[in-house]
Amino acid sequence: MPARAETSVDERSVAGFLDALRVAGLPVAVGSAILHAEALTLLEADPDSLYWAGRITLTRSPAEIDLFDTVFARWWTAPAVATTELVTEQQRVIGVDGSDGDGPDDPPADADSQEAPEPDWSLRFSAVETLRSRDFADLDDLERTQLASLLADLRLLGSLRRSRRRRRVHHGGRPDLRRTVRASMRTGGEPLRRAMTAPSRRPRRVVLLADISGSMELYSRVLMQFAHAAVASGADVETFAIGTRLTRLTRELTTHDPDRALARAAAAVPDWSGGTRLGAALGRFNDDWGVRGMARGAIVVILSDGWDRGEPSELAEQMQRLSRVAHRIVWVNPLRASTGYEPTARGMAAALPFVDDFIDGHSLDSLEHLARLVSTELIR
Fold first, then answer.
1. Which of 52, 74, 110, 295 has its CA 20 to 30 A from that of 167?
2. Which residue ranges make up each domain of the chain?
3. How far apart are alpha carbons 253 and 338 in whole angstroms?
4. What is the pLDDT of residue 278?
5. Regarding the domain with residue range 206-375, which homologous superfamily does it belong to in the CATH classification?
6. With 50 as the cut, is the pLDDT of residue 192 above it?
7. How far apart (Å, rounded) are the C-alpha atoms in residues 294 and 323?
8. Average pLDDT, stretch 225-252?
């Protein structure tokens, strides 16, 4: 809990505090804001009551507490400053000795003849906007906490496909004889209204294959948080970890608590931060899950830097098998954003001929681009 400080609570201060939380990356729903306002009306205006009223009503998980504490301390102990604003600064001439230009050796200022200095306009960007483009490998602990709350809002839905289920329509489509006959019983057997059906559409399954080897250590935790957000949203998403072996993690990531989900995932993977055998792991996936039905018509997303200890010919063979049944294969490589990067690693070079999309995966912007890409239809 932040240090005690004198606070002045009014509606504008509370509204500004909620805006500061949102700008910092803590999602504050309308219902939480209303509950927070009701709590303040029942408590005294002291720092302890203000802190606990906000922490209980505005945070949803332990991962958000550090971010809440930081914003609370900055807002209620110092004048609040918006993180995205236009700031006007008056230009002043500062001497070498630190004087402001009015020393004995300086010419006197003529108030009548000297014009007022022009304002210097500068644009300050919010921490959230800056965080979106930051490389995951360069983040500190506070930024990782902010990023976790932003990742929780991401949704990963596959592009729509035709389903075997049919839906009712008023015009067009195919006659529904069963419903038409059933409805005619109400009118003496006369089919006055003809029922129609048309094919429905549903999102494709998305399969995430995340590399958790030692070469991906700086990115694997964030990418696993992204996988947890996708699975916990309730969408049709399957997640596997790839190291020296293949581990299915969909059940471990189903819980809505991100810390608990990552702890369960880490406990289920015996080779975390070990070596990488992409070809063998993909072969296991194809044999046990992919070719049997999980990857058929699905969008397969491989999150890996492409470093492989196995034979490139084995990886190429398994990628070819996967491409025959999958609707789309997307390879997300965090190293692709590096200056001068070329996919010259043996594993990456062997897999690329069977990849439909090869994109970055080093920042929040790149993961949002991945979500948009997966939700659009593949145009060949």
1. 295
2. 1-87+116-137, 161-203, 206-375
3. 30
4. 94
5. von Willebrand factor, type A domain (3.40.50.410)
6. yes
7. 13
8. 94
